[in-house]
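Standup notes
- HV: blocked on the assembly model, inputs below
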Amino acid sequence: MWKKDEEQPAPSNAGTTPRTTGQKPASGDSGRATIGPSISIKGDVTGSEDLLIQGKVDGSVTLAQHAVGVGSEGRVNADILGRLITIEGRVEGDLTAEEQIILRGSAQVHGDIKAPRVVLEDGATFRGLVDMGANGSGGQTKATGSGRASGKPTNTSKGSETQAGEKIASDSNPPASQAATSPEKAKDASSGKSPAKS
Amino acid sequence: MRWLDRIRSGGAVPSEESETADAPESRASERASPGLGALFEGLRDDGGHSILDLGEGSRRQLEMLTPYAGVVRFVGLVPGTDEGSRAGFDPEVLVAHPGHPYDVVLAWDVLDRLNPEERASLVARIVDITGPGARLYASVDASDGTTRQPVRSMLVSHDRIAREPVGDPEPAAPELLPAEVERLLRPFTVTHAFSLRAGAREYVARKK
């Protein structure tokens, strides 16, 4: 059921540090176990070494002090608890990590994520809750790819025509000092028609 | 404010609707979103918000939203793009967050793709799981036609979104007129409404 790296080099390094084939783990250092693509497990997976899942797991995965990886071929229907969790395959279940969770570009995750640090790569799809601390103070998000977040927005949409189209209503409950205007009374800048009469 | 954007971007100002340079598909496009601009203006960037995004989680979404919220839920509620949603909208997929009622809701092209009963059910569920004064952003497709191309919307910046086609065109749901939106959103006060040349309408509202 369990295949050590020494026996079969894993096709993915998700969630674990790569090790040369045949290399023995250092004294006191636990090795990495691999659940191969043809392996299917139903039940709870626990242990004291890093784990790479390329097969199918239904149940739970609890390796609190270790890295857990779900490779691109991995299909996991289980909650995963680990120190560092890296996902390349498909997971239905909650992910909880003490340090970091990484969703690679091929990852498909449906479940809640809880970790101080969460990394989503371009292409990863995710449905669920991201919790990096209730007030966000301890959380940190890292996104890899070409895009980047811009800073706090400035007022570009109030009180005048925007580049996107016609502003047909102004703020009737303004967050800052702004005049109240009913959306129904506001005129479409281009057509002169009330938006409520379309 | 094009001059301001030009200064910020070092001279290049994106048009209202343009091809997205780094979009995963060539058919993806980008457009301005004054509604999002209005929404973000009212948010604190101290991570104290609790955000419910009815769209799917992506790198950009998370990157943009996490400065505002320690808790973000992505629902992936895009009717018609997977088997579950084709079976009908189930309000229970909108899970409440214990202890942190959502105070910001992003509803991307959802209302216009549900039937009237599902629209009312969705809004009622949103009311149930949000706190007082919660902000709602909703965009609806206002284009004509008997079919509609489902799209996945993603934040590009605080006032621009990328739209990526997903799946095949589907029969258009009954048109959602502005007056009907106002009726649907009665538990909220609509503070901003925008009609865009790109064939969409955007609403920003606050829960009463």
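- HV (later): unblocked. The radius of gyration of chain B is 16 Å. Chain B touches chain A through 67 residues (CB under 8 Å).
- Next: hand off to the docking folks.
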